[in-house]
Amino acid sequence: MTNRKPAVILAAAMIVASGFSRTETVRAQADAHPAFTVGTAAAQRGQKAYGVMHVPAGVDAGYDIPVVVIHGARPGPVLAVVSGAHGTEYASILSVEALIDNPSTAPATLSGTLILVPLVNVPSFERLTPHVNPNDNKSMNSRYPGDLNGTQTDRASAVITKEVVEQCDHLIDLHGGDLDENLRPYSYWTVTGNAKQDEFSRGMVLAFGLDHIIISRERPKDPRASRFLENTASTRGKPSFTAEAGRSGPVDAGDVTMLSDGVLNVMGYLKMTGRAATPVAKPVWVEVTSIASDYNGVFFPQVPRDAHVAKGATIGLVKDVLNRQIAEITSTDAGIIMFIRALPSLKKGDTIASLGVITQEPK
Ligand SMILES: [Zn+2]
Fold first, then answer.
1. Cα-to-centroid distance, 86 and ligand 1 (Å)
2. Which residue, 172, 164, 238, is CA-closest to 205?
3. Structure pTM?
C-alpha cells in the first residue's frame, strides 16, 4: 500500500512518524518527543510512567482517570488504547491492564509511544453500573469531544480529548458485552469518506484479528460534534477503530487475550514492534441493526450469541412476572446475533439484540 511506506530515518534523526501521516523522506532533526506526558504521567525516552488525568470538579465532583505512558526507546507512532468507558465491560479493562506489563510493550523494545487508559468510567466500575456513569447517568462514550462546563462525563470526555486524542496518531477503543449483553467478539471499521485514512484504518482492523467486522458509516463527520471516542480521533484525521469482546460480567481469559493480542498485532502493523501482523484472511463484514423491546417484562433468550437466524425466527420471549407470555420477539432480518440480552430484566426501549446482516466486502 502506498500509504504505508515507513518513514526513512537518517543518521541519528529522531522523528515521530506514523506510516500514515509521514511518508516523505525525513531530514535529520531533533527528537519531536524527547519526553511524553499525559496527565501526571511523564516519561522520558525509554521509560514507562504511571499517573492520572485529573477531571476537574465543576457542577459535580471531579475524579482521576489512571493512565500509563510507555515511551519507546525509539521514535514511532503514538498509539492510544482506551477501555472502560463502560466500567463493567471487564474483559476489555483487563486486556489493557495486561498490556502494561506485556514483554512486547517494554520501553526498550518499543518504537513509538503507547498511551494506556484501562478504566475511563471509574464510578461505573466501583458501583457496578452498566452503560452509564452513575454520577450523571450519561454514557461515557457518547459525550465527546466533551465540555469542561458540563457534568462529570462531559468534563472527563473533554480531558480525554485533550490529553489522549489530540496527542495520539491512532486510537483503539476497547469494549465488550456489558452486564446485560451476551456478545460475540467483533471490531468496527469506520467509513469516514477519506479514502486514504479509511484504507489505513481498515488495515488496522484486519491486523487486529477479529474476523467479524461491523461497517460503521453513520458516525458524525464534524470533529466538533464527534460524539464517540473513536469518532473523535477519526474526525481529527487519526486512523482509529473500536473492538469488543467479553460478555455479561464474568471474565473469560480467552476474551482478554483476544483483545490484548489484537493490540499487539496492530502495534506490529504500525511497525512499533517487530511482530508480524497477519491480517484476517476471510472477514465477515456486517451491517448491524438493533432490535429493541416494546414491552416491560421478563426476558427469555431463545438463541445464543453468534446464532445465524432467519428473518422472522424467534429469538426471545417476554413474559410477565406471573409467567404469562406477553410477546414473542422475532428477528427483523436474516443475520448473525452479535449480542443478545443476557438478563431477565427488561423494560420498554431496552436493546434485545444486535443483529449483523452479512454484506459484501466493502470496496
Ligand atoms: Zn462499551
1. 5
2. 172
3. 0.92
